[in-house]
Amino acid sequence: MKSILLIVLMLFLSNIVFSQDYPYEVDYYDFINYDSNKLCFYGDSSNFEKLFKKFDRLIKEGEGQISVLQLGASHTQADIFSSQLRGRLQTFYPGMNAGRGYVFPYRMMRTNNPFNYYTKHTGKWSVCRNVERKNCNLGLTGISATTLDSNATIKIVMSKKNQIKYNFNSLKIIHTTDSENYEVTLVNDSMLLWKATYPMFGYTEIFLKEYVEEVEIKLKKTKPTQSYFELYGICLETENQGVVLHPLGVNGAGLYSYTKCVFFEQHLDIFAPDWIIIAIGTNDAYRINFDAVKYKEDYRELINKIRTVNPNIAITMVVPNDCYMRRQPNPNTELQVQMIKELSKEEGCSMWDMYGIMGGYNSSETWNNANLMTSDRIHFTTQGYILLGNLFFNAFMKSYDKHIENNVVPLKKE
């Protein structure tokens, strides 16, 4: 009986949810290569089968959480593309919203903060990013904020304008956990259920008594040896089944920016992702003397760092978008396409060819004329990022659709 119900469910998903070429409508433009919008597998795809089976379990049994991590630069820090993708993943089937995920108080560094939350802080903080030549230790998030003020606070408030409600009942505060760091706790003690710090992994976990949409943390000096606090980021989490997508982006970052981060592997273990989307590369190729071989070596080094923590993780490499360099189309992106394609085959990763989907060389001019890219022809408008998020989601769903088709067991004739 159970197997029959499973077959019926699979058929339902295949025929109803994925009956269209594109599971969700996307805006149509005659210059976009919609036929190229897919996850390309040039080598072993077994790691994605593991990911798809987690989606199966989530849909069929309503159990489990799927952690997705998008690693990138300015496209990711803005969290428009990733926010659209997060929303699609969390709403394509009931009960898929497992929370907002990673946040950082970007206002400390006077830079753009994602639109779906805002932060306030007290105390004097100094910020270090992986694109700078400062002597500081960084981790997976590529950014840190340090203060000497033992009374400093950080407040995080989810935006009321979010189409999806993101409340949470726990926080993972990623920070340096040596004996010289201040303790971190809540401003409102009545919200605290329990708290624990894990020095080996580098974070403090705080559980709340109820689900909330805002929280304020504070620092506290509890020992004479404590003299500072160093923050790498905060994860807003829930106990709900579903999908959570963490956008880790630093404006101007390249592959080399992340491979030098000493706590990369330690912090990756905190997020425990099932799927990593690497959306890095524009800044690597933004130079006249671009070395494609070195780019490939840097990319492989980043993949190896990820696989050191989880050898079986699903990885998608996003080909950088067409862009301008010195007021001319950047010819280096075509070299990146070839390098990423080779890595896809050699490392068992999937590839999403954003460059080819856009239309290839000099397509950024066309996208700019359609108000999908800004005048720098590097970054996208809000409309452009939302379109890309929808396209990427559809590409993923096409692969998941094939997984379902391949796993539907035909009914036996009586």
Label the structural class.
alpha+beta
> What's the rounded overall pLDDT mean?
92
Supply the CATH class of the largest domain: Alpha Beta
Topology-level CATH name of the largest domain: Rossmann fold
Give the strand content: 25-35%
Q: What is the string of helix and strand elements?
A: HEHEHHEEEEEEEEEEEEHHEHEEEHEHHH
Amino- and carboxy-terminal Cα gap: 15 Å
CATH homologous superfamily annotation of the largest domain: SGNH hydrolase
Measured as a percent range, the helix fraction is: 25-40%
How would you describe this protein?
By secondary structure, the protein is of the alpha+beta class. The protein has two domains: 22-98 and 241-408, Rossmann fold, CATH 3.40.50; 100-239, Jelly Rolls (Sandwich), CATH 2.60.120.1360. It is built from eleven helices and 19 strands. The protein has helices spanning 2-17, 46-61, 74-77, 81-91, 255-259, 264-271, 292-309, 332-347, 354-358, 363-369, 382-407, and strands at 40-41, 65-72, 101-103, 117-122, 125-129, 143-147, 153-158, 168-175, 183-186, 192-198, 203-212, 214-220, 229-237, 242-249, 275-279, 314-318, 324-325, 328-329, 350-352. The strands form four sheets. Strands 3, 5, 6, 8, 10, 11 and 13 form a seven-stranded antiparallel sheet that branches. A six-stranded mixed sheet has the order 1-19-16-15-2-14, with helices on both faces. A four-stranded antiparallel sheet has the order 4-7-12-9, with no helix packed on it. α7 links the parallel β15 (275-279) and β16 (314-318). α1 (2-17) packs antiparallel against α11 (382-407), α6 (264-271) crosses α7 and α7 runs parallel beside α8 (332-347). The model is unreliable at 1-22 (pLDDT under 50).
